[in-house]
Structure formats: structure tokens, C-alpha cells
Write a structure and sequence with these properties.
Number of domains: 1
Shape: elongated
Structural class: mainly alpha
CATH architecture: Up-down Bundle
CATH class: Mainly Alpha
Radius of gyration: 16 Å
Oligomer: single chain
Number of helices: 6
Helix content: over 70%
Length: about 130
């Protein structure tokens, strides 16, 4: 079997998500990219909670790293000149979420990850409404 087919055969869902993600970010639309980052962030946090329940420390670590990296990307993309106080507020929320994730990463309780995902999902919903208007 060719390497390409072998890669898809191992985890077709992950391959589909990579292709889908590449397609959604190819437009270069910064608003769309932020929406994708929020989706991937909540997906990663949900996977952390699932990995904790399943006792899979490897997936837990990978998804925590991914969530933290996405939070850094979201904060790094803030425009403090044009965004004013809203950018400052979002930066504080992202920092607080990172802190909670890192603190919770030392334990085996999925609840903090679920709470962070829920809170960030509210922000993502507001972002989608803003983009739609």
C-alpha cells in the first residue's frame, strides 16, 4: 500500500479534518480563521476531557498542548489599537483560560477543561454573531 493510502487508512477522520481545516483557512479571511481556531480549541478541550476519562495520558498531553497553542494564537492575533478595551478583555480571558488549563493538566479531573470549553464557546458564539452582522 502506498504511504498516502496507509496514512488515510490509519485515521480517516483525522485526515478529513486536516483537509477540511486547510480548505476553510485557505481563503485568508481573518474572521473565518478566528472561527476555525475557536472550533479547534473547543474540540481539543473536549478531547482532553475524553482522554482523561479513558485514561489516555498521551492524547491528554497532545490536546492540552494544542489548546494552549491555539490560545496563544488567538491572543497573538488581537489588534489592540483597533480593538481597544475589547482586545484587552479578550487577552485577559485567553490568559486566564491558559492558566486554568495548565493548572488542571496536573490532575485527572475533566471538569476544568469542560468549563473552559463552555466559556470559550460563548465567546465563539458572539464572534459568529458579529461576523454574521
Amino acid at each position: 500500500m502506498h504511504a498516502y493510502a496507509t496514512t488515510i487508512g490509519r485515521n480517516p477522520d483525522a485526515m478529513y479534518r486536516k483537509i477540511d481545516l486547510a480548505g476553510r483557512t485557505a481563503s485568508g479571511d481573518p474572521h473565518a480563521l478566528v472561527g476555525v481556531l475557536y472550533e479547534e480549541l473547543t474540540r481539543a478541550l473536549g478531547a482532553v476531557a475524553g482522554a482523561i476519562r479513558a485514561g489516555n495520558g498521551t492524547v491528554k498531553s497532545e490536546k492540552i498542548s494544542r489548546a494552549v497553542a491555539i490560545l496563544f494564537a488567538l491572543e497573538g492575533g488581537l489588534d489592540f489599537e483597533r480593538g481597544g478595551p475589547l482586545s484587552t478583555t479578550l487577552a485577559g480571558l485567553y490568559r486566564g483560560a491558559r492558566r486554568k488549563i495548565v493548572d488542571a493538566s496536573l490532575g485527572d479531573d475533566p471538569q476544568p477543561f469542560i468549563e473552559v470549553a463552555r466559556n470559550l464557546n460563548e465567546i465563539a458564539g458572539a464572534w459568529r454573531q458579529l461576523k454574521a452582522s
